[in-house]
Design a protein that fits this description.
Elements: E1 15-16, E2 20-21, E3 28-30, H1 31-36, E4 60-62
Antiparallel strand pairs: 1-2, 3-4
Bound molecules: iron/sulfur cluster.
Length: about 80
């Protein structure tokens, strides 16, 4: 699949110029999941996670977000694409 993820969150470790996400995979989740689960729960665990519904885009979040220069960059086991 030749997928492009566009993102405008420019303080994320995975954000690149042109508003592109360079993460090799991401996890979009409900805000509740994002709030309650640790950083280690991310895209690499997607097949194990129970899907949930959301009422609108405002109730979803990118669980893969990590602030640039954060000490938590490696906690999600996600890598940047080359
Ligand atoms: S990981 Fe999420 S927040 Fe970060 S650049 Fe990619 S889509 Fe945006």
């Amino acid at each position: 699949m030749n997928q492009h993820i566009h993102c405008i969150i420019n303080n994320c470790h995975y954000w690149e110029k042109g508003n592109k996400c360079s993460a090799n995979e991401i996890l979009v989740a409900s805000d509740a999941f994002g709030t309650n689960q640790p950083d280690s729960f991310d895209a690499t665990m997607a097949k194990q996670l129970t899907p949930t519904a959301a009422d609108s885009c405002m109730a979803t979040c990118c669980k893969t977000f990590v602030p640039k220069n954060s000490d938590k960059i490696n906690s999600d086991n996600i890598t940047k694409m080359s």
